[in-house]
Amino acid sequence: xxxxxxxxxxxxxxxxxxxxxxxxxxxxxxxxxxxxxxxxxxxxxxxxxxxxxxxxxxxxxxxxxxxxxxxxxxxxxxxxxxxxxxxxxxxxxxxxxxxxxxxxxxxxxxxxxxxxxxxxxxxxxxxxxxxxxxxxxxxxxxxxxxxxxxxxxxxxxxxxxxxxxxxxxxxxxxxxxxxxxxxxxxxxxxxxxxxxxxxxxxxxxxxxxxxxxxxxxxxxxxxxxxxxxxxxxxxxxxxxxxxxxxxxxxxxxxxxxxxxxxxxxxxxxxxxxxxxxxxxxxxxxxxxxxxxxxxxxxxxxxxxxxxxxxxxxxxxxxxxxxxxxxxxxxxxxxxxxxxxxxxxxxxxxxxxxxxxxxxxxxxxxxxxxxxxxxxxxxxxxxxxxxxxxxxxxxxxxxxxxxxxxxxxxxxxxxxxxxxxxxxxxxxxxxxxxxxxxxxxxxxxxxxxxxxxxxxxxxxxxxxxxxxxxxxxxxxxxxxxxxxxxxxxxxxxxxxxxxxxxxxxxxxxxx
Length: 510
Fold this sequence. Notes:
The protein is α/β, with parallel strands linked by helices.
């Protein structure tokens, strides 16, 4: 609906006619579906009737003769989120809105293109996904048309030449809203090498986006306004300093023994610092690399990074922050949250709203804070286990048009049917509270940005997220300069080697 409204507004503005604009903006419908009379115009000129352009499907005459469209889909349950429910679904109608939308989408695309979607299930963990997929591709068997798995695995597989380049493909329309075109372009290590697919068909990119969750009842207890924090978000003043002040204000030694520990009331709780730190870091709108005429270069050895590491330490080591739990899992974190023992929790994703149905208090959803008041926009992060797409090199080149046609139509139809059911009905209506919470989900969705660091941190030896930020943070160090300089020589060599590998792929026609 949001995309449709935006499209209508653009059509109105580009029409170039004041009368036409009046028709678009003022015409309403009555209860019987008939167009009601518009508000009387200022002049006596007749307002033209609104016309609707018939959609002509460019794929209407496509017929692949019942060919299998083979999707290597991830079904593991070791990560916080999993995208298979949006790709394969249950395979039948069961009355659940999202599942039924997936089933109907698969049936519609199957009929439109005359294909047979088939699913090869992969249960791969964080530690073996890259190696397993690489071994399977090296075996040379043409078993899949497209793969869905963790973005960090595809970053390294692209470097090593195991994925098809879609940069020059004429079928994928990356200007459409059902593709995350900017994110895909951001994942180009060198210009012209586009190997990672991020679009609505790979819905985990949305459900795995990071978000903070708050206990609005506690916020009301301390600030006499349950919307105190979200008002800061809308005002643009939700920063590291604002969050640190809030979590230290709300903290309470509940048992009065003089020591803050699990069971007391904390302002912020997470599990560990590595995974919990990533969305805070990317939320600062940090730029890690710059593509120049001389090649790709690191560009984050600066005062802004120094400040980022200082603020990360200040937040994670605040008296009101708890980073270690007896039940060291995202489920254990939600148990602490549901017990009312933390004002805000980190590490969770947008999709985790669906796991909080039994929590009795009102839950608020928040973006990660800005670094400071000078930062223009909020930035929401994917995780390195966000499941996106890629086309394996084992797919014969003459099958690329078939594969990308299927992907284009699946993405298009997912944007029309599955995403509205999940995003509008599932997240907003079932699991969130009120119009402002819906606006905050919109904000997080629209600010998903810059997946480069989660795609390539491992490929670059952990230099981006680990060496320069997570490692010093883990030892309560704010010495960014030393952390950077200590590893920069080796990191620059790795960067150069990786860039040359991608350039070699392009020279070889991929």
